[in-house]
Each structure stands twice: as structure tokens, then as C-alpha cells.
Amino acid sequence: MYAHPRPQVARLVRNGDLYQPARGFYVVVPRDRVDTAWHPELEAVAAGIATAQFGEGVPVLMGVSAARLHGAIPRALATAVVAVPRQHKSIRLMDRRAVIRFVARDTEKLDAELMRTELGPVLATTAEQTLLDLAHRPGLGEATHDVPAAIRFLWQRSDPHTLDEIAASQRLKAALTRAEQMASQGSVHAAP
């Protein structure tokens, strides 16, 4: 505990022990990454910032961010999407041209699992939930051109029974139909 934390935080940043991805948020730099050009992946930063804002076990990476963790979108993106219990304004990162978008959802009803990131485990939607979310809102996360391939990738890894259950419980039957069409035809139509 520091009586005057600002000078101490500034010193830790200068020494390379803390990394500042966004105003007011800091990440402890892994020991083996001190004095390197390291910066954490966007999805890990988004989960960390959302956890700092909403508490541990509350935020869930979703949409394109969950798709990235599942390996369905191989390239780095400029937008991370996080489900949280109440709306929060987007946070622009300082270390790169990227933004974290918060989506108000009942996170307890999302089908989620723990996934590993370089900053530790985070909650992210399962392959099935991610597929349905992408089909429901393909433009969320500004990666629309990546969505068709991501849905085809996730379709191959999803359990049909689980897809049906999630679609029924979350009123995503139309998204399931679009995802099925996309998986067989390779095209997507945005939700009205």
C-alpha cells in the first residue's frame, strides 16, 4: 500500500513492470517480458478491464472476441466485445488503435466456459453461443467480413442439440437458421 500511489505507478511503468493499455488501467508485465516490446492480446486486455469494472466471473467475452479465442478468426482485430450486466461506454485503448465494446446482457444466462489467455483464464462464450451471437449480430465488433468463415468454423465444432437448446432459450431461432444457411451456403444475411 502506498500513501501516494501515482509516483509509484509511474515509476513501475517507466521500469517496465507495469503496462498501461488504457487510461486508468494497468497490467503487471510477466517477468520474462520485462524490457521487451510486449503488449497483451486485445481479448485478454478486454477481459481484464471488464473484470476490473464489473468484478471477477461477471464479464464474458462474446462475438468476435470469443471467436478469436476459439481460433475461428485468426487475425488480430481492432474491436473486442464483452458481455456485461449493464451498459458501459466503450473504452479506447492507448497502446493500439483498438476499442473495447461492452454489450449489456444477462451474463449468467450465456453459455460460457473458462478459456486461457496470456493474462490468465477468462470467461468466453462456448462455440455454440458464439456461433449464434455472430449470426444474430454479424456487424458487432466491426469484423463482418470475418463472420461467415468464423461461423463455418464454429459450426463444425458445435453440438446440434446444444445449438437448439441455446437458440430456444435465448430466442435465437432465426440466428440458428441463418447460421445453418451460412454453414451450408457460405453466406450471411444480417438480422433486421
Summarize the structure in words:
The structure is a single chain. Mean pLDDT is 90; it is low at 187-192. The protein is α+β, with helices and mostly antiparallel strands. The chain contains seven helices and eight strands; from the N terminus they run H-E-E-H-E-H-E-E-E-E-E-H-H-H-H. Strand 1 (18-22) and strand 2 form a beta hairpin. The protein is elongated and about 55 Å long. It starts with a helix and ends in a 7-residue tail after the last helix. The protein has a single domain, classed as Beta Polymerase, domain 2. Helix content is 38%, strand content 19%.
Rounded radius of gyration (Å): 18 Å
Q: What is the global morphology?
A: elongated
Structural class: alpha+beta
Topology pattern, helix = H, strand = E: HEEHEHEEEEEHHHH
* N-C termini distance: 52 Å
Mean pLDDT, as a whole number? Answer: 90
Low-confidence stretches: 187-192
Per DSSP, what share of the residues sits in E-state strands of 2 or more residues? 15-25%
Q: Please indicate the count of domains.
A: 1
CATH topology: Beta Polymerase, domain 2
Present the secondary structure layout.
Blueprint: H1 5-14, E1 18-22, E2 25-28, H2 42-54, E3 60-61, H3 63-69, E4 79-84, E5 91-92, E6 99-104, E7 112-117, E8 120-125, H4 127-136, H5 147-156, H6 160-169, H7 173-185
Parallel strand pairs: 4-6
Antiparallel strand pairs: 1-2, 3-4, 5-6, 7-8
Helix pairs in contact: 3-4, 4-5, 4-7, 5-7, 6-7
